[in-house]
Amino acid sequence: MTLAPAHVAGAGMIRFGKYPVDVTLESMGVDAGRAALADAGATLTTVDALYVGHVFGGPVAGQRIAAQLGLDGKPVSNHENYCASGATAVREAWVALAAGLHDVVLVIGVEKMTDRISGGVRPDPNDLDAAVGYVMAAGHAMSARRYMADHGATREQIAAVAVKNHAHSVHNPFAQYQKPISLDQVLSARPIAEPLGLLDCSPISDGAAAVVLCSPAGLRRLGIDAAVPKVLGAALVSGSVLTGTGDLNAEDVSRRAGEQAWELSGVGPDDVDLVEMHDCFTIAEIVRMEGLGLVPVGQGAAWTADGHTALGGRLPVNPSGGLLSRGHPVGATGVAQVCELTWQLRGTAGGRQVDGARIGLAYCKGGTVNGTDGGSVTTVVMAS
Amino acid sequence: MSAATRVPLPEASSGSRRPFRPGLLQLEPPRLLGSRCSACGTATFPARAFCPHCRATTGIDGVALTPDGHVHSFTVVRQAPAGVDVPYVLAQIDLGDGVRVLAQVVGAEPERIALGAPVSLELAPVADAAGQPDGQLVGYRFRVDQEMTT
Question: Is B72 found in the same domain as B57?
Answer without folding.
Answer: no
